[in-house]
Amino acid sequence: MQNGVMQSWLDSSHLAGGNSTYVEELYEAYLEDPNSVSEQWQEVFAKLPAVENSSQEIAHTPIRDYFRRLAKDNSSYSSPAEDPTHAAKQVKVLQLINAYRFRGHQHAELDPLGLWKQERVEELSPAYHGLDDADMQQSFNVGSYAIGKDTMALDDLYRSLLKTYGGSIGAEYMHITNTDEKRWIQSRLESVEATGSFDSDDRTRFLKSLTAAEGLEKYLGAKFPGAKRFSLEGGDSLIVMLKELIRQGGISGTKEVVIGMAHRGRLNVLVNVLGKNPSELFDEFAGKHSDDKWGTGDVKYHQGFSSDFETPGGNVHLSLAFNPSHLEIVNPVVIGSVRARQDRRGGANCLPITIHGDSAIAGQGVVQETFNMSQARGFKVGGTVRIVVNNQVGFTTSDPRDTRSTQYCTDIAKMVQAPIFHVNGDDPEAVAFVSQLAMEYRDEFERDVVIDLVCYRRHGHNEADEPNATQPLMYQQIKKQPTPRKVYADDLVKRNLLENSQATELVNEYRDLLDQGLRVVDEWRPMTQHSVDWTPFLGHNWDIYYNSALPIEQLKDLGERVVSYPESHKLHPRVAKIYADRMEMALGNKPLDWGFAENLAYASLLDDGKNIRITGQDSGRGTFFHRHAVLHGQEDASTYIPLKNLSENQGRLALFDSVLSEAAVLAFEYGYSTAEPSTLVIWEAQFGDFANGAQVVIDQFMSSGEQKWGRMCGLVMLLPHGYEGQGPEHSSARLERYLQLCAEQNMQVCVPSTPAQVYHMLRRQVIRPMRRPLVVMSPKSLLRHPLATSSLEELAEGTFQNVIGEMDDLAADKVEQIVLCSGKVYYDLLEERRKKEISNIALVRIEQLYPFPEQDLKQLLETYPQVRNFVWCQEEPQNQGAWYSSQHHFRSAIPDDARLRYAGREASASPAVGYMSLHLKQQRALVSDALTVK
What we know:
Shape: elongated
Strand order of the largest sheet: 3-9-10-8-7-4-6-5-11
Number of strands: 25
CATH class of the largest domain: Alpha Beta
Distance between the termini: 96 Å
Number of domains: 4
Enzyme class: oxidoreductase
Radius of gyration: 34 Å
Domain Transketolase-like pyrimidine-binding: 592-785
Helix content: 25-40%
Strand content: 5-15%
Number of helices: 32
GO biological process, one term: glycolytic process
GO molecular function, one term: thiamine pyrophosphate binding
Low-confidence stretches: 1-18, 49-59, 68-81
CATH superfamily of the largest domain: Thiamin diphosphate (ThDP)-binding fold, Pyr/PP domains
Cofactor: thiamine diphosphate
């Protein structure tokens, strides 16, 4: 040992005589958990010298041997030895404390029904550690146990441990590797023995929340018997929890709260937290809907709502996100919306709260995806408060043993080391304490935190269900179980904190408010303008005028800026070549390729003060090595982004390579775009049909969110698409799926074929004051195709063309057949037609398949009044692509007596073949077929 450390050991009476065993056990405890020993011992052990040629602490064996040598050499000490028996017991006491920190939650009284019997943990018994009745009156050092005392009688310590870790709260946090976080939680729990400090006003507030939760459900049950409402009954404390989270958030500076939840308890949250007028809800139950309500609508337990909520720290704006019945998919939508609000506000003063079901949080993969995003640079929001309404029944009838493979449904949260606080739903004061603790933790560490509200479901999955058929014992107990309101009211009466008449008065007051159709939330305030103003984007048609032109000199200047980077930033040779070529493009010396035109579109918008957000699994570089918006220095791995260095007052660019997820990331970007209409928000798939994994987001939010909920968004999806012989998963972006979802002008589906087209398409999405999703079949081989180029003039002076007519110099009156097509196949047709010198077949590109440009196409076809032979040519199999979904549009644009036939691959179960030779054979055949007049 080093001299200073040696002297400190020699001066310690604990090392005298037989105490080496005690010290050795202390050291073992320290190795398992440093917090299990006192700070003085932590300091000594932490200063132990390193093993020679190693950065690790000195091995346990040399330390043990050293302790034993010291024990034999009594002459080294001048202090008397401690009682070795007491010293050994001291270590066991510290181990008992540690056992409760690790596993006390397994003995906590969490289930209001008393049916949840967890396996008994021997380590939580003093006897397991060799501590007997005689020891209970002995005083021991309690180490780092944060009770405010250095020593305690073992009997008092044991009672304190039971109260802290074995009462209505079960805390799991020892899986966290960050010592500061663990110590913080220990100090907050142990210093008050997991008990909140509440006054009479607080308790009245909790009781009023429980009264409201119960009162609404009983009122609806009596007024609309048999109607589906997905009652909160049994989980009534959720209302206490939400209001306490919002209140605590307001005190700590939160300005906005966005909540996401499925249908269980949603109506209760709408009325009793957000302050929706009960009369509006009653009208919905009665089937009354305003005639001027636009759209197809949705069921009442999917609806969202916004309001303001008064807290001691000021008003907080609340938003409950709209949500389909796909349970957990709303979580990344909420978090994306929060990120947008935080970006706009320039701070983390917007709080996401997500509410989960016990089976859903464990069973739905998007939960794992969202947890994984929680600390990723492009998706973090300073922590999400995640609440599990744990009614101990999965969906309709499932036993927990069938819905997960872990002890708790919340174990998934351990993947990001989130603390988990289980709490008994029949103890509202414990619920309030945990809510405050969760908010304080989130604010302190900016990480996710989970609250497991252990409760029950008083009725079946919906009110028409008969739960006794599958959970007979549980529902026999539920029938006898007093409601959470009554449990708490009786407890307050028993503690002489409330009169029975006061509890009854609260019930009557709430029912009177419902009878009068008045708002029932005391904290509700008229909503002021918190979120972005959508007014400029309402009421516009697709053909609204917009001016996308830029002076060519301005475009050249932008082009030079977007390819400039510091000389000290050394690029990879291939990237340096791309940037050298782009400088020539910017100067007008070389035709523009796809990557440069796309970056110019972004630069032009940023230079105009517009914001852009782009995410995807390879978005910085581009999957196909084409974008290179992020330049990686080859000498120091630093990054430089020219698009962020255009001008001093440019718009904000957020460009992130995403986590390896489609569902959660696309849902996040949808949520972001619904909260930020002025930002160009783009999600790029690595390959087009990888979006399959996000189909719920596309079906339930993007394509129908405006019709169901009036929620507009301008999200852009870039889906690489094109048949290059790369097999089923790397060919088709499943164009047919998007076209099948198209109706009521709900979204755009475009297949741009030139760099100028992608430039104008992206600019149009921002400049035009209309916000609807844009689905782009983006190219792969066209990124470097010698024919797929554009000029600076086409960018500066043009606009997006929904339809592009014949580009070669054909005599219009000699044309006998017109081939309609989209995307890459156009260039295959063009090269083959030129090769064979065919002059009687014209090629027409439809660049926007929806909304279908019928008038544009009709106007173009007027050039060929004699043509009656039309062909739709596509690369996709006949049952895929645009043929089945769009042929009625094609027929509406061609003459009534004209003939339309199909040229393409035969119908197939697979999107594409996997053999290059077969792909080439099919490609030659479809091109030849299209270029044959029949």
